Amino acid sequence: MLRRSAVTAGFALALTLVATPAIAHAGPDGSSAPESLYAQAKAQAAATVQTDPAMVDALSRDLGITGAQAKTRLINEAAAAKVESVFTRQLADDFAGLWLAGPTADLVVATSDSTRVADILKAGAQAKLVKHSLAALDAAKARLDELADSAPKSIPSWYVDVQNNSVVVLARDTAEAQSFVNGSGLDASLVRIEASTEEPKPLYDVRGGDAYYMGSGGRCSVGFSVTRAGSQGGFVTAGHCGRVGTTTSGYNRVAQGTFRGSSFPGNDYAWVEVNSQWTPTGVVNAYNSGILPVRGSTQRAVGSSICRSGSTTGYHCGTISQHNTSVTYPEGTITGVTRTTVCAEPGDSGGSYISGDQAQGVTSGGSGNCTSGGTTYHQPVNEILSAYGLTLAGGSTPPTGCSGYQNTYNGSLTSNQNAYQPSSSGYTAAAGTHRICLDGPNGTDFDAYLQRLSGSTWTTVAQGTSPNPDEAFTYNGTAGTYRVRVHAYSGSGSYTLGLTRP
């Protein structure tokens, strides 16, 4: 009994570290009693947490909950983060972990000591009595970590599962996993083996200007990430870097892809299809100048500024001297290339030429170097895209599928970004029907939300959120101020929005 009293006092004292002045409620006799630890943390979170409409919409869609539940969840999650250290410290060796459950993320705290259950309930959380403390589970996992080098390849993962009070070992071959666990010397009640088909692997981005290595040796540079129907996608580069069937590894020497098309001499272009560990992204690595977005491939005029990125010399700029140039290398003549004043050196081949945010071409060759200066040539990117039926990742001309609408608006987004049309301040509409059409880039998931201004808050009143790039819907509403939020749920590129207002 003394032990429970001490713990309750500990929770109350610790509260002053995580909450605003104590909230009080009427006790059974009408007196004022201090609110629970968790309730105070939730009150503080409710006053400080910003429930961004975009996040609420995304949670509602992907977790299958209402907007109100999503807002409550965000508050409860913030409150739980505030009190976790209190429960950990005050329950000490009897603490068995905590987690959030249900649509609104209700707090559950586990303990391995039945005398602690009442204290958890008084603090405002749900309580669960379990066999093993978190310390015991952590120690068991640490033992498996010590044996990691001898773990079978058929075991993709192991972890502490506080909700089920065990260490879980995932296994594609349960017999091998059982042998591994038996050899650890752990108490069998601590470990649970689960059959799994998981085969985890690291994931990497394909970026213009980054190095890649050919299977037979040598290094070149990525031009631009591309997509292709029925393909994993990949990147364009110089044809002299590899032939069809040549394998590549990335800047980190991880297996990357295979040349699917190559032309040299005559042309100097190729495309590489990457494997599932690599994701084409619409950006160029400009090294010390940062990461640059690629939003299209409109060819710039002679005299325009142009910059090149490559894995040997990084990022350098110059101007466009001439288009439609023929250049003769020892291997033969290349026609239709663009001549520039940008420098380059061996290893930069295949790398990105970009003007503003528009892709221009891939490095072919040249003379000079980046110390004394030089002249270089690039193979125009639009010719490569046309030759192989490719589309720039995150770029290209805005789609035009939303014809017949009162107004159309074009824009470009990278993954997880938002745009507001016709502007963030919206448009004034009479009562009647709004018609919305969104045409996003192929291979992406773009969504559209019609929002109405209520006081100072924008509220979503209709939406198109299919797992596709294109959306179309209508909304019959009252007079007011509206706007359309375009959201790049996954993928990047240019879009067209069609809008007919009442």
TrEMBL record:
GO MF terms held by the record: serine-type endopeptidase activity
GO cellular component terms given for this protein: extracellular region
Signal sequence region: 1-26
InterPro entries in the cross-refs: Pept_S1_alpha_lytic, Pept_S1A_streptogrisin, Peptidase_S1_PA, Peptidase_S1_PA_chymotrypsin, Streptogrisin_prodomain
Domain of life of the native organism: Bacteria
Protein's recorded name: Serine protease
Organism expressing this protein natively: Planobispora rosea
Family to which this protein belongs: Belongs to the peptidase S1 family.
Start and end residues of each Peptidase S1A alpha-lytic prodomain domain: 132-188
GO-annotated biological processes: proteolysis
Keyword annotations: Disulfide bond, Hydrolase, Protease, Serine protease, Signal, Zymogen
High-level lineage: Bacteria, Bacillati, Actinomycetota, Actinomycetes, Streptosporangiales
